[in-house]
Design brief:
The complex is a heterodimer of chains A (about 300) and B (about 300). Chain A has about 300 residues and is mainly alpha-helical. Chain A contains 13 helices and two strands. Chain A has helices at about 1-50, 50-55, 75-110, 110-125, 130-145, 150-155, 160-185, 190-195, 200-215, 215-230, 235-240, 255-265, 275-305; strands spanning about 60, 75. Chain A has a two-stranded antiparallel sheet with strand order 1-2. Chain B is mainly alpha-helical and about 300 residues long. Chain B has two domains: about 5-55; about 55-295, MetI-like (MetI-like fold, Orthogonal Bundle), CATH 1.10.3720.10. Helix content of chain B is about 75%, strand content about 0%. Chain B has helices spanning about 5-10, 15-50, 55-60, 75-105, 110-120, 125-140, 145-170, 175-185, 190-215, 220-225, 245-255, 260-295. In chain B, helix 4 runs parallel beside helix 7, helix 4 (about 75-105) packs antiparallel against helix 9 and helix 4 packs across helix 11. Classes of the chains: A mainly alpha (about 300), B mainly alpha (about 300). At the A-B interface, helix 1, helix 3, helix 4, helix 5 and helix 7 of A face helix 2, helix 4, helix 5, helix 6 and helix 7 of B.
Chain lengths: ~300, ~300
């Protein structure tokens, strides 16, 4: 009698607990829904006034300041070009450096060295991005300006895409190196042994056997790092400037999508105004960019895992 | 014939190939040195510019227009408030989600969606969470730019980290423990509560500390929620305005006067010191449990 009543109570408790745990897991889906819904909701107000094509393909971005004729412009391309410019400079640093480090750690380094270097490099990924912004603005830019070439000495201004991009490259090195290394370590030993038996040098085995075998994982690391660079905010807000400009000249001051959002997201922008809605439209575009790249990156990682 | 000569005869290009290998090796080492040099110059730069500004009053004074009198008291208290509430919101929900996915979830389309969704959420830029917080917590729920709105935003941001780490910790608990528990007549919930979670606790704690150290350095979403002006009071309840350390540092960095860059560097030293000690605790917990499981 007592036993069966306990069992009944246990079953009820079990069901309640089950649903509580389920609710926790469902929170993550609700979060995604919340992100998409809030971005769409506020963007709708924006696209009600500005046609989508004008937003996506317009080449002038001045949503706050009016031009000589008293018009504002809502073409997002300058923000996109600024974002891609900084992210490309970062990739130009992080892809070769990260890949070289990954090859060294996976194929060359003795275990002791590996266990020493990996955590030190990972410190780079844990430093807050506002610190990188400070570093780019107060150290790297002055350093670049001290280079005795006219371009750097005279034309490089305080806020520029180059130093922000270089420092961002440093920041995402560990992302490229650790994801690529994971992919390379997963390549079966037998492939390497076969290549060594055929007389390959260590470099030949690394570049012609291991890297091609881990290729999709390596490409995924590039994509995920690039996506991280696109979404990075404080570094570019501090060091790259606030001048939306359709240019691919790295020594100029530009503005990224993220930096624009920060510029207007603080308290003084009245809720419901066109300015307020603008940051959500830009946010929606940013979200679409990074989501697309992340989905592609994860897809490649998964495909690669199934190979062996 | 000597051995080297035979090798050379069989493969005339071996010497060249080996030399190329040496060059590549030097390049690999150089790449590592670039990373290490970048890290070293960053830390040295911060220490060199910030150390002169560090003092006790820097920790106990409010921000000021005058660099000599400025401190980060309001930012430190704001960060403590945000971290405390974020932990309070994140840990139960994050661990609950991990328990569901590892112990309860059936293998169906919904579980699959949740899993893909969590890995995608981890890649959403932090400023987008700031926009979410601004639209939902500040505006729709009308919480305003308050501590609680900031902490809720931050919880959503670091939730994926806690879920992923907790799942790994739960998965690492041997299934024999669960079977032994069921064998003794325990219900599923009792097994989770008394067997699985205690054994997964160190891993969950490590993951939580890592999530918190991510949260403590996040400036972008907090700019969207916090008060950007220099606050000269500390929050006393969750519905007060606040500022946090990285936002305070941002405020100092964007001031063109060089003495404020010194303040920013001093603030960075404080922030990095806190981060470093949090990570040290996480590593200590991980090493202790690794040793124990090896015994």
């Amino acid at each position: 009698m007592q036993l069966s009543r306990n069992r009944k109570r246990g079953a009820l408790q079990g069901r309640i607990v089950h649903w509580l745990f389920f609710a926790c897991a469902a929170m993550s889906v609700i979060t995604t829904f919340g992100i998409v819904a809030s971005l769409l909701r506020e963007s709708l107000g924006f696209f009600g006034e500005i046609p989508v094509w004008e937003f996506l393909f317009g080449t002038t971005w001045s949503p706050i300041l009016k031009d000589a004729e008293g018009n504002r412009h809502y073409g997002v391309l300058p923000l996109v070009s600024g974002t891609l410019l900084v992210a490309s400079i970062a990739a130009a640093v992080a892809v070769p450096a990260g890949l070289a480090i990954a090859i060294y750690l996976s194929e060359y380094a003795p275990d002791k060295v590996r266990r020493l270097i990996k955590p030190i490099l990972e410190v780079l990924a844990g430093i807050p991005t506002v610190v990188y912004g400070y570093f780019a603005l107060t150290f790297v830019t002055p350093l670049l300006r001290s280079i005795p070439i006219q371009v750097f000495r005279e034309d490089l201004i305080v806020y520029n895409a180059l130093s922000a991009g270089l420092v961002m490259g440093l920041m995402i090195i560990p992302m490229v190196s650790s994801l690529s290394e994971d992919a390379m370590v997963a390549v079966p030993r037998s492939l390497r042994h076969a290549a060594y038996a055929l007389g390959g040098t260590r470099l030949e085995v690394s570049l012609r056997i291991v890297v091609p075998a881990a290729f999709s994982g390596i490409v995924a690391s590039f994509i995920l790092a690039f996506s991280r660079a696109i979404g990075e905010t404080m570094l570019v807000t501090i060091a790259a400037g606030a001048t939306p400009r359709l240019t691919f000249n790295p020594i100029e001051s530009i503005q990224t999508m993220t930096a624009f959002i920060v510029q207007l997201a603080h308290g003084e922008t009245p809720h419901g105004s066109l300015e307020y809605n603008t940051i959500f439209a830009v946010g929606l575009l940013l979200f679409a960019f990074t989501l697309g790249m992340n989905v592609l990156g994860h897809f490649l990682v998964r495909r690669f895992r199934e190979e062996y | 014939m000597a051995r080297a000569e035979i090798t050379a005869l069989l493969n005339p290009r071996l010497a060249v190939r080996k030399r190329i290998g040496t060059v590549a090796y030097v390049i690999f080492i150089a790449a590592i040195l670039i990373g290490l040099a970048g890290l070293a110059s960053l830390l040295l730069r911060v220490l060199w510019q910030g150390a002169p500004w560090l003092s006790l009053h820097f920790l106990t004074d409010y921000p000021s227009r005058f660099a000599e009198q400025a401190g980060m008291k309001s930012a430190i208290f704001g960060t403590v408030w945000i971290m405390g509430l974020t932990g309070l919101f994140t840990v139960p929900v994050g661990v609950g989600a991990a328990v569901y996915l590892e112990e309860y979830a059936p293998k169906n389309w919904f579980t699959r969606i949740v899993e893909v969704n969590i890995s995608n959420l981890a890649g959403v830029p932090s400023i987008v969470y700031g926009l979410l917080g601004l639209a939902v917590f500040v505006q729709i729920l009308a919480l305003g730019r308050t501590v609680v709105a900031g902490a809720l935003t931050m919880s959503l941001l670091v939730m994926p980290i806690v879920i992923i780490a907790s799942r790994e910790a739960i998965r690492a608990v041997p299934s024999t423990y669960r079977e032994a528990s069921y064998g003794l007549g325990a219900t599923k919930f009792q097994t989770v509560k008394d067997v699985v979670l205690p054994h997964a606790l160190p891993g969950i704690m490590t993951g939580t500390i890592l999530a918190m150290s991510r949260a403590i350095g996040e400036a972008a979403p907090m700019i969207a929620i916090s008060a950007l002006v220099f606050l000269t009071f500390i929050p006393t309840d969750p519905l007060d305005e606040f500022t946090v350390m990285p936002v305070q540092i941002y405020n100092w960095v964007r001031d063109p006067r060089p003495e404020f860059h010194g303040l920013a560097a001093a603030g960075i030293i404080v922030l990095l010191a806190v981060l470093l000690s949090m990570n040290a605790v996480a590593i200590y917990i991980r090493n202790r449990t690794q040793k124990r499981s090896e015994e």
